[in-house]
Specification:
TIM Barrel; 8-stranded parallel barrel; 11 helices; 14% strand; binds flavin-adenine dinucleotide
Length: 290
């Protein structure tokens, strides 16, 4: 199971939920994050992705978490970014990951940290360049990011979709979307992708809201729209964290049921490292997820 390529999981016709973890900041304790991996793994996602600090700031921790996922018998999807990365560094990281049995990579440009603006270039300008390189290095299943509301730097949704074609030309096996809170945005986006001839599997990314201030800040940065019913929920429970968590799990569950009802077999959950959130969603879908 844990050596499976993600694309095999996505195409097996069953309903799968996967989730994302992020490593601790450099210099902090790793043990807590390893325990989070174990607690989420116990709830049985189909695979777990591990984010990567742009510039390689989390490389050791990201690899250690990916290993922990694999050791739990689940495939790890290891993120890698272009920011400040050269071919030697990426080859080294890929070899380390392969040593842990990881053969699934999510290749990204990365969020450019404020202190690296203007000084972030490495060997790869765009995610598609990194994808091509990873594919040349071994038998990796490679995913990429997709933006139902357009990437903030793309200028327009049309241009964003044109640029997504570079990922397909580079051999991307599947795409995982940025979060969205209105499923019609994803359905419109799917139509645009198909019209542009992009037909690799698309895994919707769902973010259960747990923190009012944080979600508003993340959405401002990523350009994600807050639909009125979502905004009302966040405002109503902003000062009641446990109520917001419960409402956030219910909202995310509703989005997922609608996605599954409309033919999406695979959904990725941005768990924000909170096992109880992933468990809450899985419990709500116990008769629905295979
Ligand atoms: P790219 O595909 O390089 O796109 C960046 C911009 O350039 C876009 O506007 C695109 O339209 C444009 N573009 C692409 N190709 C070309 C081209 N050939 N010519 C001209 N323009 C082009 N960030 C992290 O730092 N670490 C993570 O672990 C991480 N995980 C993520 C997981 C998911 C599922 C998602 C959706 C995002 C994640 N991010 C992560 C954030 C991501 O790195 C940023 O959104 C980043 O700004 C863009 O990444 P990309 O891979 O889409 O880059």
């Amino acid at each position: 199971m844990h050596n499976k390529k993600i694309i095999e999981i996505l195409n097996d016709g069953r309903i799968h939920l996967s989730c994302e973890l992020f490593p601790p900041k450099q210099g902090s304790e790793l043990q807590n994050s390893l325990e989070i991996v174990n607690r989420i793994a116990a709830v049985k996602p189909s695979y777990m992705s591990v984010t990567y600090g742009a510039g390689g700031s989390t490389v050791g921790y990201s690899a250690a978490l990916a290993k922990e996922v694999q050791d739990n018998g689940l495939p790890a999807l290891a993120h890698l970014t272009c920011v400040k990365a050269d071919e030697v560094k990426i080859t080294e990281v890929l070899q380390q990951l392969q040593g842990h049995g990881v053969n699934n990579i999510l290749a990204l440009r990365g969020d450019i940290p404020a202190d690296m603006q203007g000084d972030h270039q490495g060997s790869f300008a765009h995610a598609s360049d990194l994808m091509r390189f990873v594919k040349e290095q071994g038998d990796f299943c490679v995913g990429g990011a997709a933006y139902p509301e357009g990437h903030p730097e793309s200028g327009s949704l049309e241009q964003d979709i044109e640029n997504t074609k570079y990922k397909v030309e580079a051999g991307v096996d599947f795409l995982v979307t940025q979060m969205f809170f209105d499923n019609t945005i994803l359905y419109n986006y799917m139509f645009r992708l198909l019209r542009a001839g992009i037909n690799v599997p698309v895994v919707p990314g769902i973010m259960p809201v747990t923190n009012a201030k944080q979600i508003i800040r993340i959405c401002q940065l990523s350009g994600t729209k807050l639909p009125p019913q979502f905004r009302a929920m966040v405002e109503k429970f902003a000062d009641k964290p446990e109520a917001l968590k419960q409402a956030g799990i219910a909202y995310a569950t509703g989005q997922i049921i609608d996605l599954i009802s409309n033919g999406f077999d695979n959904v990725h959950i941005y768990t924000m490292n909170k096992p109880e959130i992933f468990k809450g969603i899985m419990d709500n879908l116990s008769e629905i997820v295979d």
